[in-house]
Write a sequence for this structure.
């Protein structure tokens, strides 16, 4: 596959689908005021019940990346089992993007 084919057949449609899913699912996970609130709340709750990241409280970005790992494992399992994995790569990419957004987020407090 040539570079331009990769860009046109893989990258462009993949990121278009990533955007569609982030916008569509994001509305059901977060408020308009804070797109990342689900990650902030989840990190707090999981820390309160004893989860940690290298002995420190979970952060929103570590929770998002944990989800990326889960999706990667799911993709691997489904590949091994010969099952449909149409959007598994999209979910993994999106959780990486959300983790990066959490890292860049200036407002680490839950609203």
């Amino acid at each position: 596959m040539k570079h331009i084919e990769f860009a046109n057949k893989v990258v462009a449609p993949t990121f278009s689908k990533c955007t569609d899913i982030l916008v569509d699912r994001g509305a059901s996970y977060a408020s308009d005021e804070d797109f990342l609130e689900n990650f902030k709340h989840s990190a707090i709750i999981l820390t309160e019940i004893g989860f940690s990241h290298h002995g420190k409280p979970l952060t929103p970005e570590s929770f998002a990346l944990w989800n990326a790992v889960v999706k990667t494992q799911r993709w691997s399992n489904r590949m091994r089992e010969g099952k449909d994995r149409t959007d598994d790569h999209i979910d993994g990419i999106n959780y990486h993007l959300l983790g990066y957004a959490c890292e860049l987020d200036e407002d680490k407090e839950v609203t």
